[in-house]
Amino acid sequence: MANSTRRVNKAASFARVLWGRCNSEPAVTVRDPLTSSERLTRWNSWTDGESPDGKRTQWFADVARASGPSTTVVPGVREPDRTGDDMGGNPAAAAERAAMRRALVLAATPGVAMVADTRRVGCVLLDDAGRTVAEGHHRGPGTPHAEADALARAGAAAHGTTAVVTLEPCHHTGRTGPCTEALVRAGVRRVVFAEADANPVAAGGRAALEAAGIEVESGLLADEAARLAEVYRVALRERRPFVTWKFAATLDGRSAAADGTSRWVSSRAARLDTHRLRALCDTMLVGTNTVAVDDPLLTVRDEDGVPLDVQPLRAVMGERALDPARRVFDGDAETVRLRTRDPHVALADLAARGRQHVFLEGGPTLAAAFLRAGLVDEIVAYVAPMLLGAGRSAVGDLGITGIDQAFRPVVDDVTVLPGIDGEEPNVRLTLTPRASGAPAPRKD
Ligand SMILES: NC(=O)c1ccc[n+]([C@@H]2O[C@H](COP(=O)([O-])OP(=O)(O)OC[C@H]3O[C@@H](n4cnc5c(N)ncnc54)[C@H](OP(=O)(O)O)[C@@H]3O)[C@@H](O)[C@H]2O)c1
Questions:
Q1: Is residue 298 one of the residues assigned to a domain?
Q2: pLDDT (mean) for 10-39
Q3: What pTM does this model have?
Q4: Which residue minimizes the CA distance to atom 45 of ligand 1?
Q5: 195 falls within a domain
Q6: Which of 373, 367, 51 is nearest to 240 (CA)?
């Protein structure tokens, strides 16, 4: 296959991964991401090999088989059914549920930069038999909303369809016209949405649709839609991008070997996983020293190392001059220099560029600066079964001198990543920093 064709196909298949904030149960779950779940998550969204444009990739299924049996160690977490078996045997309801999952995946298409007041939204149009007529998603400020995108693709075939949308259709004229009017004009028969629009400016969609005689149902997969929207909510509230800090460390908390020979401390499975998480974000952020030492590409690549055709912005923070031959300055994605050491200034700059979700990949100095500034919203840590005994700590000085001052994030999820090609498993922890001043949990 020509490289360009393969690149497009891989990029499309990779869009399946965009399930950043929809994967975790409220309680800690420990599971094998590749084999245990039918739920639409960061992980299993690839296992069925389905991609948004209908192309298929076998890779994740192959990985799942190679990984052997599930390593789930906390049983009893019931995964919601997506086959329709728990829909009382109602095929129409099952089709709408499956379409909503699809719409959620579409909503999280990679690389799309959203300013803080714009939402990730996906839409699937179904015919009476539950077949997909067209799909759409929002691509950022000023572009058609998901419904308008799907309607445009469907053309006349939109008449009589059910529109399955992740967010209540808007009823106002902003940068684009009201989606309610577009749905009515197109002759859509029924609308199913996941999350009501709490934005008072855009609200009223349901009432307008019902007034026009369209059947409306809401709340389908609303929890998952709400998790998808968490990044948007934080970005809107804080007027800065949501920040996910990702790091990899050895058992003794080292992020790199003392002599600098450790390009990676985590396993291949963890690194692939990182690429999936990168694809959730619209900005990659590192400090100047990581660029100087590691010379990272900071692109999102598939399992063959092929970059996706839509890439997050690459941002390098720090004041020193850098060699323009560093790979981060190649043409594979846009790169900006943030010539500051102040995390607030850096995020303000990124917000002004319309960025909503930053993936902070270190190193330890930059991570410490963001933690100290209270500017980390989510932590993803990969722990590798390895000891170094020396080398850089995963995070720099946090100004903590006593155990009572320890930074204690809340654990949202613990997942075992089975090794690929004989490597040992790595463990991924997803954590939420506690609001400053919140009490630490007592173990006794
Ligand atoms: N295991 C992992 O997950 C992981 C991830 C990334 C990196 N690493 C490793 O980390 C090492 C590099 O770590 P690092 O901490 O030296 O690199 P870094 O955090 O990427 O960069 C540090 C540099 O960023 C600039 N900077 C920007 N904001 C700053 C602030 N608020 N405070 C202080 N400096 C600021 C400073 O340089 P200026 O003089 O330019 O301002 C500083 O020297 C490498 O060995 C790399 O392999 C590991």
A1: no
A2: 34
A3: 0.76
A4: 256
A5: yes
A6: 373
Full DSSP string of 317-351? ESSS---TTSGGGSTTS-EEEE--S-HHHHHHHHH
Whole-number Å distance, alpha carbon 359 to ligand 1 midpoint, is 14
Half-sphere exposure of 189 (CA within 13 A, CB side): 10
Residues 110-162: tens digit of each pLDDT: 667 676 677 889 999 999 999 999 999 998 888 899 999 999 999 999 999 99
Condensed to tens digits (0 to 9), the pLDDT of residues 279-305 reads 878 899 999 999 999 999 999 888 888
Q: How confident is the model at residue 325 (pLDDT cuts 50, 70, 90)?
A: very high
Q: Atom 7, ligand 1: which residue's CA is nearest?
A: 363
Report whether 100 contacts 166 (CB < 8 A): yes
Note whether 38 and 167 are same-domain residues. Answer: no
- Output phi, psi for 152, to 5 deg: -65, -40
Q: Is 293 exposed, middle or buried (0-12, 13-18, 19+ CB in 10 A)?
A: middle
CB atoms within 10 A of CB 213: 8
147 a catalytic residue: yes
**Would you give the distance in Å from CA 375 to the centre of its chain?**
18
CA of 101 to the centre of ligand 1 (A): 38
Look at residues 180, 208, 228 and tell me which one is the last residue of a structural domain. Answer: 228
Pocket test for ligand 1, best of 244, 290, 319, 386 (most atoms within 8 A of CB): 290
On whether the CB atoms of residues 150 and 125 are closer than 8 A, the answer is yes
Q: Of 168-177, 216-225, 231-240, 414-423, which range is least confident? A: 168-177
Atom number, ligand 1, closest to the C-alpha of residue 342: 31
Instruction: Identify the CATH number of the domain in which residue 105 sits.
Output: 3.40.140.10
